[in-house]
Amino acid sequence: VSNSRQDFLHKLSRNLVNESQVIVVENLNVKGLIPNRKLSKSISDAGWGMFVNFLDYKLQRRGGKLIEIDRFFPSSKTCSCCGHIVDELPLDIRQWDCPACKNHHDRDENASKNITAEAIRILSMGGGNPVLAELRRRKTNKPQGGKAVVNETGSPHLLRQSKCG
Q1: DSSP-assigned states of every residue in 81-132
Q2: What is the residue extent of each domain of the chain?
C-alpha cells in the first residue's frame, strides 16, 4: 500500500509540475488533524505531507515555485467578493451567504478563490504576508483561531469589491 501511494503521488506531482510553474497549497497542520477519529485514516492514506515534499523538490528542479499559504489565513471565512470575514464558519456549513454583500458562496470554491488571490498577492509583492492572523486567547492562554487584519494599502484584498455584483 505504501509503495502504491508513493507511486501515485510521484506521478501526480510530476503531472502537476509539468503543467505549472507555480503551485499553491495550504500549509496544513497534518499531524494535528490525525487525532480526529473520523478523518485520521483518510488523512494518513492521502500522504499530504509527502505529496507537498514531492511537489516542492520537483518544482525547484524545474525552476518553478511552491507557495504555501499559512494555515491561519481565513480562506473559507473571507468573502471572495468584498473581503468581509465571518466570525465563525463550522466545518459542517458547506455554503454560506456573506452578510455584507449578500453573495452566496460554496465554502471550498470561495476558499480556492481567496487562496489564489493571496498567492497572486504574494508573487506580485515579492513575498511577505500583510494579512496576519491575530491569535485570540482565552483564559487558558491557548490560541483559539485567528482574525485577519489587512495592514498594507493596495493589497488585492481591498480591491475585491469590483469582482462580484
Answers
A1: TT--B-S---TT--EEE-TTT--EEEHHHHHHHHHHHHHHHHHHTTS--SEE
A2: 1-69, 72-106+128-165
